Amino acid sequence: MANRIFELMAPCHFGMESVLKREILDLGYEISQVEDGRVTFWGDAEAVCRANIFLRTTERILIKAGSFRAATFEELFQGTKAIPWENYIPLDGRFWVKKAGSVKSKLFSPTDVQSVMKKAMVERLKYAYGRDVIPETGSSYPLRVFLYKDQVTVGLDTTGDSLHKRGYRKLTARAPIEETLAAALIMLTPWKGDRILVDPFCGSGTFPIEAAMMAAHIAPGMNRSFLAEDWKELIPRKFWYSAMDEAAELVEDTVSVDIQGYDADGDVIRSARANAEAAGVGHLIHFQQRPVAELSHPKKYGFLITNPPYGERLEDKESLPALYAQLGVRYRMLDAWSAYIITSYEDVEKYMGRKADKNRKIYNGMLKTYYYQFLGPKPPRRSGDHGNGR
Question: Which fold has domain 6-157?
């Protein structure tokens, strides 16, 4: 059982597929498909553990149980029943369709999809186990189902709480950016741990913390648990232990970095410090209460990576021009820096005083935002320079 090869599905933020694909390849797995908001790859039971612990930019890891066409509830029932659920779910397993999403499909009611699929699974497992009743007293096996143009894709959720919940963010500031998205946005830049990184609107500290974890090779899933740890028949415990040991051996938290987070609100900075301590990187980040009007750094070739206020609330909107104008002025005073700004505010380029070199549309939750990339000059190569990025 442990040597079985699964097709594993890793959902991500729309627009971040290329970053996640690179991460999966770096872990040593073969990609089977890249779609909008999802990368699928091949892996064994050990891959389930390693993907959950090491991948920074996916929301969860799903084992693909099956895929079939269904334009009617009868086709949905028969297609679900044809999946060999006994190969995944033990006799006492608790199972249900936790989430069903439908796009451009004839079947679009999530609750109906959920109940039809549950009935079909019960039928299959009663027959497979030769029982009149399935007890459902054991471990949890939630399913996530995607219907797209009448094609049904069924995944077993190995993760549980979304992977953006690293375990370090106990305290959050207003409208925090998800950890998985923050990591992906950093990975879209050329930043490496030997370069300067400053977030002038750091909020709960997500950008600096994710950057410090990357620099110190701290796996994002080291401080949390996963649903599939209880799936002993499918994923032996030894694989979780070996993946955690691998993660522990890679940590280099004595690395020398220049990562800074500023915010005008002192309470917010205290929260960010507490979060960084919980992530094991408090000693690698300099947090300071400082308004954007005082943004400065003596060195060249640094990176601003930030998620400034968007002005979702009307009363905040009025203050945005002044805020972005200050950011633009202070950025232009930095020597040869690059700036990466995610925001839904449309006048960023006007206040930065130049057109962005690159601009990428990204959905932050349900909000359409843009990732403006203002590229500074590259630093001259040092002899023997190889950086310390992974």
Answer: VC0802-like (3.30.2130)
